[in-house]
Amino acid sequence: RLLTTPNDPEFLNGNLWGLHNIGQDNGTDNADINGPEAWDTITDAGEIIVAVIDTGVRYTHEDLVDNMWINAGEVPGNGLDDDNNGWVDDVHGIDAINDNGDPMDLHGHGTHCAGIIGAVGNNGIGVTGVAWNVQIMACRFVTVPGNGAGLTSDAIKCIDYARQQGAHIMSNSWGGAPFSQALLESISRARDAGIIFTAGAGNMGIDNDTFPNYPASYDLDNIVAVAATDRNDDIIWFSNYGA
C-alpha cells in the first residue's frame, strides 16, 4: 500500500535516510525509524511542546518558524517580564548563559536537532522533521564560540524553565559531565511532572553501564538514552565531543 510521503525536497531526494532508508548510497534497506509508516498513523503533534536544550535554535529559520513554541503570556520586544516568570521577552524560550529571553542559536547544533525533531513537514521546503507539526521551545546553555561546553547550572536553569512552561519532552543532545546531584534532581523534577527526557548516549562507542555518560546514565525511568547509528545501522563513533 502507499505510505504517507511529504513533499519536502530533502526527503524526496533520499537524503533523509534516517527517516526512510531503501538502501540509497550503499545503505541498508530499512535501517531507519520507519518515518512513512509512522506518518500513516499521525503527522500532527501540534499540542506537544519539545524543549531543545542545546545551543539555542534559529527560530527565524524558514523550516522552523511555524513550529516554534510561543509563550502566550509574553509581549514580544517590550522589555518586560509580562508573565512574571523571571524572564524578560522569553517568547520562544531562554538563553540561560546570558540570563535573557533570546535563545538565538549562534552555532547551529541546536537548530539541527530542532529540525530533526520538528522541521515543518510537507511544506515543499528543505527537510521534514519526525513531527510535521509540533511546538519547539528553545533553551540555550551551550556556549559558542568556545569549546562547545556549557555550565551544569545553566542546564538546570533550562530544565527547570522548560518544566515550568509546560514542556512534554526535553531533547538533550549533550553530555559527558561528571555525576551531579543537582542535575539529577532537576531531571527528577521533570520526571515527577511526567516529562520524557531524551539524552545523548555519547559518540565514543563505549558501554555507558561501565563508563557512565551523564545525563543519559542517571537512573531515572523518564530518561531515554539515544545512540547514533549510520545508514547501515552500525554505531557511530566520533573522537570529538557531541551526542
Beta-strand percent range: 5-15%
The rounded distance between the terminal residues' Cα atoms is 36 Å
pLDDT average, as an integer? Answer: 94
Helicity, as a percent range: 10-25%
Structural class: alpha/beta
Largest sheet: 6 strands, parallel
Unreliable segments of 5+ consecutive residues = 239-243
Indicate the radius of gyration in whole angstroms. 18 Å
E-strand count: 6
Shape: globular
Going across the biggest sheet, name each strand in turn: 2-3-1-4-5-6
Number of helices: 5
Instruction: List the secondary-structure elements in sequence, H or E.
Output: HHEEHEHEHEE
Describe this structure in words.
With 243 residues, the chain is α/β, with parallel strands linked by helices. It contains 5 helices and 6 strands; from the N terminus they run ααββαβαβαββ. The longest helix has 13 residues, at 152-164. The relative contact order is 0.16. The model is unreliable at 239-243 (pLDDT under 50).
In short:
Helices cover 18% and strands 14% of the residues.
Descriptive labels:
243 residues, alpha/beta, 6-stranded parallel β-sheet
Q: Which helices and strands, and how do they pair?
A:
Layout: H1 9-12, H2 35-39, E1 44-54, E2 93-95, H3 109-118, E3 133-140, H4 152-164, E4 169-172, H5 181-192, E5 196-200, E6 223-226
Parallel strand pairs: 1-3, 1-4, 2-3, 4-5, 5-6
Helix pairs in contact: 4-5
